[in-house]
Design goal:
This protein has about 120 residues and is an all-alpha fold. The protein folds into two domains: about 35 residues, no CATH class; about 50 residues. It is built from four helices and no strands. Helix 3 packs antiparallel against helix 4. The longest helix has 21 residues. The protein starts with a helix and ends with a helix.
């Protein structure tokens, strides 16, 4: 009876250990999945290497107060951009200031909203 329980427990342990995946393997599968979703033909994807993330990667870099300040700045930049382009109906692509504002607004929005 004891040996049956021991064998059953041993088999269960082996199954559990075999079914567990390492965190690194899960991350690699997630990265590949996201890359495949971003491609028109995911069968052409050939992942050669996935670098180890360092401490610079993460989502929560800014405090809520900093996020509010940045959101206010994005709002102000957007207002100026809309005034200069007549609400994007007449953008002057040769106006370096307007194009710089548009680039700044897009970068800030992307960075801010990707971290929220």
């Amino acid at each position: 009876m004891k040996s049956t329980k021991f064998v059953l427990l041993a088999m269960l342990s082996v199954v559990l250990l075999a079914s567990c995946q390492s965190r690194e393997l899960k991350i690699k599968k997630l990265v590949k999945s996201h890359l495949e979703q971003s491609l028109e033909n995911p069968r052409d994807l050939k992942v050669k290497e996935i670098a180890e993330p360092d401490s610079a990667f993460g989502l929560n870099y800014f405090t809520p107060q900093e996020q509010a300040y940045m959101l206010g700045t994005v709002t102000n930049v957007t207002k100026v951009l809309m005034e200069r382009t007549a609400y994007m109906t007449k953008p002057d692509l040769d106006d370096a200031y307007t194009m710089t504002l548009a680039d700044l607004e897009m970068r800030m929005s992307t960075g801010l909203f990707s971290g929220m």
